[in-house]
Automatic annotation (TrEMBL):
InterPro entries: FAD-bd_PCMH, FAD-bd_PCMH-like_sf, FAD-bd_PCMH_sub2, FAD-linked_Oxidoreductase, Oxid_FAD_bind_N. The keyword Secreted does not apply. PROSITE patterns: FAD_PCMH. Residues 57-229 form the FAD-binding PCMH-type domain. It holds the Pfam family FAD_binding_4. Belongs to the oxygen-dependent FAD-linked oxidoreductase family. Keywords: FAD, Flavoprotein, Oxidoreductase, Signal. The keyword Endoplasmic reticulum does not apply. This is FAD-binding PCMH-type domain-containing protein. It comes from Cladorrhinum samala.
Amino acid sequence: MSRLDQALVGLALAGIAAAGLRPSVCDTLNAALPGLVTFPNTPLYLQESTYWSNRQAELQPSCFVTPRTAQDVSKAVKIITSRNTPFTVKGGGHTGYTGGSNIQDGVTIDLLYMKEVKVSKDRKTVTVGPGNRWVDIYEQLDPLGLSVVGGRADTVGVSGLTLGGGISYFSGSYGWACDNVKLYEVVTASGDILTATPTTNKDLYWALRGGGGSNFGIVTRFDIRSFDQGELWASSLILPGAFNTSFIPLIQDFAVNGVKRDPLAHQYFVMAYSADFGGYLILSDQFHPSAKTIPEPFKPLHQFAPVFSNNTRLANVTQLSRDIHVPGGHRQNFAVTSVAATSAQLFIDYTQMWKELVDRMLVKAAGSHLLPLLVIQPIPTHIIELMQVNGGNALGLKPSDGPLMLVQLSFEWSDPALDATLETEANNMINKFNQVAKQRGLYKGFIYMNYASRLQDVYASYGLPNALKLKLIALKYDPFGRFKSLWRGYFKL
Ligand SMILES: Cc1cc2nc3c(=O)[nH]c(=O)nc-3n(C[C@H](O)[C@H](O)[C@H](O)COP(=O)(O)OP(=O)(O)OC[C@H]3O[C@@H](n4cnc5c(N)ncnc54)[C@H](O)[C@@H]3O)c2cc1C
């Protein structure tokens, strides 16, 4: 090829790259990781663009990288950071908002093929790849009579849930998911592959327990505590929404007194508006890892009649997680706050405030799909005590803060024109909830990352010392700020 030809080819390639048709970083990744890079307009690309929320699915990265090993992740990180390319990481892809774990025109590292599930000989540890969904693990552990502290819904990702905290059926026994990770394998911004345990890279270990993804490193392996587990007792009650004023005091009493009588009992309460059910309704989901009949703290909840449905059963975790399946294919938003669990009246008042918001939003939705939820779930004091093991986690909760109640707003909708309105209105509602709680001396302020809106300041809610410590740890493992500037999505320090 003559010099002129070479120059023309070079110019053409540069033109193609500049036009964003096939950016050269993806070609370089493709050369380094053959067969592990997916380009637009291919069937695999469409498959990898599957996210729980359409707000994420509609973004179009320049390519997906699908590593098989930690070494692949390391290679990808080195190439991406050396090219100064914005990127993100997808675990189970259940973040609701735009850009949580997908990116427009950058690179999405999709961990979907890193699906190892390996039980140790002594059955006390399960090594888990970051691309697993919880049901993948439960399907393998149930036949062995084992389980782990993991997510309650089947297709949610192991990675995001565990890195942000992780509320489980088994939290009453063992704390949150992040409190049960024995070892993290992590690819840092330099491409180094480190392990973090209570004794090795202790600071990183602490940060990853609730400090979330997007800041410290890409986790390529979790070693999680496992334990013997058979079928659980579970009950899902669906009742008309009008029962809320008599039902909510029982939920509140459970969070303060019921769990003292039976610390393993676990539940959450949902108020929903569903056109299919003809209006507002209540869903009460209750679980117990060892009971065979209704556990004593739940008995008051079973006195209500008529109920729309009562699904009380013994089932394994795989089945329970499937029962809670929430299909994707809509637009999604969460927002959350936390308050003292001591006043039933607060939750009754919140329900009324939320219903007024929903009535307004239903008018705006003008008949298009809108599913609003108000979710209330306890964080009992003994669970906060369980969080203090192995040096504690990054969430900043102290036993003296408990018992708490998480109050979460969720909107599922179909019309993109409602995105900004629903996000802002949910945030405003949370601010109003906080004002009311402050006036009554019940405000706690902890924002659970995995239920938060992108408009919320999650790290500030962990308390200034923890927020500063997390920043310093991020700086130590990312001294040149590569992840800080290039890794997009979720909550940044
Ligand atoms: C239907 C449903 C049910 C849920 N149930 C529960 C529940 O029972 N308990 C609970 O606590 N929460 C629950 N959640 C919230 C859930 O924990 C969060 O949505 C969580 O972020 C999902 O993780 P993911 O891997 O699927 O998400 P993703 O969107 O893939 O990832 C979330 C964030 O983590 C980062 N990330 C992903 N993988 C890695 C990695 N390997 N290393 C570093 N960073 C990474 C991403 O970049 C992103 O910033 C639920 C959510 C939904 C939608």
